[in-house]
């Protein structure tokens, strides 16, 4: 299972049907940031085994659904993506990471309300 980083056409990227977030929410600010600064963190995608009519490989987004939606809104035609061949187990692990990554900082039991890691006094 190889891993590459590529600039992929946004039209070749598809939302994952197992994404627990069915709506990406308000992405205006993110789209504005992407328009002015670009995408700073690549999406994580896996080939879905299909090609389009022009023979372009198609990909399923594992992590980065909001960035993809914002890139589309910003008018980007390509986005940076880490392309990884994944079996179903690895893809589920990616979903679990995405869910944890999207939690507000205070949701982690070892952080305070400002997102700072709490340490024990010795």
Order of SSEs: EEHEEHEH
| E-strand count | 5
**CATH fold descriptor of the domain at 3-85:** Conserved hypothetical protein from pyrococcus furiosus pfu- 392566-001, ParB domain
Backbone CA Rg: 16 Å
Distance between the termini: 45 Å
Biggest sheet statistics? 5 strands, mixed
Strand order of the largest sheet: 1-5-3-4-2
Work out the strand percent. 25-35%
Q: Work out the helicity level.
A: 25-40%
Average pLDDT rating:
80
Q: What is the CATH class of the domain at 3-85? A: Alpha Beta
Shape: globular
CATH architecture of the domain at 3-85: Alpha-Beta Complex
SS-derived structural category:
alpha/beta
Describe the 3D structure.
- The protein is an alpha/beta fold and 122 residues long.
- Helices cover 28% and strands 26% of the residues.
- It has helices at 28-37, 65-74, 88-101; strands at 3-9, 13-14, 43-51, 57-63, 78-84.
- It has a five-stranded mixed sheet.
- The radius of gyration is 16 Å and the shape is globular.
- The relative contact order is 0.24.
């Amino acid at each position: 299972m190889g891993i590459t980083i590529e600039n992929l056409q946004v039209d070749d990227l598809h939302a994952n049907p197992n994404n627990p977030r069915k709506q990406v929410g308000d992405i205006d600010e993110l789209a504005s940031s992407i328009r002015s600064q670009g995408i700073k963190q690549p999406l994580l995608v896996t080939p879905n085994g299909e090609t389009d009519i022009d023979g372009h490989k198609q990909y399923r987004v594992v992590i980065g659904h909001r960035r993809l939606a914002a890139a589309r809104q910003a008018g980007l035609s390509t986005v940076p993506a880490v392309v990884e061949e994944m079996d179903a187990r690895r893809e589920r692990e990616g979903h679990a990471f995405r869910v944890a990554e999207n939690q507000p900082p205070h949701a982690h039991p070892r952080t305070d309300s400002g997102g700072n890691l709490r340490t024990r006094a010795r």
